[in-house]
């Protein structure tokens, strides 16, 4: 990730796109690389440009945000996606988490919190609003309630340490500093953790750690 965060705004309302651009212009680290009006254009833009973060609406014509998220993550798995929406329905959030969303922000968010979320996701962190976390955990637990084998028992002690750090929202850099290891080693541990516990990204790993009571949030 470069020092400048190249961001794509995806929303079908021109006024919202313009408002977001103005808000984000106050943060020198964020560069709005482009704006598009639907998910299909977002996928095309990401395939042709060096995008770091996508700020993605959900309900859009041509292709909605959920499908766009799926296609973008297939195209560029390391790209960060933040859903910015008026909806707090569980089904939207569950689908987006399944496809690898890094953040979920409601459109009434304070501009400072939006910028903070973008900067955090760029560092490799994840964000789900506290009001939605309990519902996500409940659904995650329901979906996995039949799985009685404790997958985290396959993790090494160091991998559990890394997983605990992920669950508290720490970036790779922060984890490396806290555990006195390199960022490359952190990435290697995360690859092993994801494979062992059967998740696709940091958000799912964090939810797993909380559900299994490996960490108290």
UniProtKB/TrEMBL annotation:
Gene3D superfamilies attached to this UniProt entry: 3.40.50.2300
Positions where 4-aspartylphosphate occurs in the chain: 57
Pfam assignment, any one: GerE
InterPro entries: CheY-like_superfamily (IPR011006), NreC/VraR/RcsB-like_REC (IPR058245), Sig_transdc_resp-reg_C-effctor (IPR016032), Sig_transdc_resp-reg_receiver (IPR001789), Tscrpt_reg_LuxR_C (IPR000792), WalR-like (IPR039420)
Keywords associated with the record: DNA-binding, Phosphoprotein, Transcription, Transcription regulation
Superkingdom: Bacteria
Any one Gene Ontology molecular-function term assigned to this protein's record: DNA binding
Record CDD domains: LuxR_C_like (cd06170), REC_NarL-like (cd17535)
Domain HTH luxR-type, residue spans: 148-213
GO biological process terms, semicolon-separated: phosphorelay signal transduction system; regulation of DNA-templated transcription
Occurrences of domain Response regulatory (ranges): 6-122
Transmembrane domains' residue ranges: none
Function: May play the central regulatory role in sporulation. It may be an element of the effector pathway responsible for the activation of sporulation genes in response to nutritional stress. Spo0A may act in concert with spo0H (a sigma factor) to control the expression of some genes that are critical to the sporulation process.
Protein name per its UniProtKB record: Stage 0 sporulation protein A homolog
Protein source organism: Desulforamulus aeronauticus DSM 10349
């Amino acid at each position: 990730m470069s020092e400048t965060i190249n961001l794509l705004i995806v929303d079908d309302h021109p006024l919202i796109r313009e408002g977001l651009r103005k808000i984000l212009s106050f943060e020198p680290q964020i560069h709005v690389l482009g704006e598009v009006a639907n998910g299909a254009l977002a996928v095309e833009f990401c395939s042709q440009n060096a995008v770091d973060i996508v700020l993605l609406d959900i309900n859009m014509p041509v292709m909605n945000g959920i499908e766009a998220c799926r296609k973008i993550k297939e195209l560029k798995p390391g790209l960060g996606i933040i859903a910015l929406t008026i909806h707090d329905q569980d089904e939207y959030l569950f689908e987006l988490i399944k496809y690898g969303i890094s953040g979920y922000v409601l459109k009434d968010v304070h501009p400072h919190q939006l910028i903070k979320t973008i900067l955090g996701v760029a560092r490799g962190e994840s964000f789900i609003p506290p009001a939605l976390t309990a519902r996500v955990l409940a659904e995650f637990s329901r979906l996995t309630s039949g799985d009685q084998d404790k997958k985290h028992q396959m993790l090494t002690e160091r991998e559990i340490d890394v997983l605990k750090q992920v669950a508290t929202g720490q970036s790779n850099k922060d984890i490396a500093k806290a555990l006195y290891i390199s960022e490359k080693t952190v990435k290697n541990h995360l690859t092993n953790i994801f494979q062992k516990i059967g998740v696709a990204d940091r958000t799912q790993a964090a939810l797993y750690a909380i559900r299994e009571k490996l960490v108290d949030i």
